[in-house]
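Lay summary. Proteins are chains of building blocks that fold into shapes, and those shapes determine what they do. In this project we predict the shape from the chain. Here is one chain we studied, written as its sequence of building blocks.
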Amino acid sequence: MLNKNNEKSLIENLIEVYNSWLSRKIEDFNSSVYYESPEYLYQSYLKGDNL
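And here is the predicted shape, written in a compact code that computers can read:
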């Protein structure tokens, strides 16, 4: 997960997010997730599911 105490590099974090469930949801342009705000996406990612 992304947080301020994370020991991972920026690249490792980007790869983790890109390969997450959320990335697949965003890539589905027919879903409403594509149109959500960045804050909603971030909070959903942290929770591990859509809010």
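What the prediction tells us: The chain has three helices and no strands.
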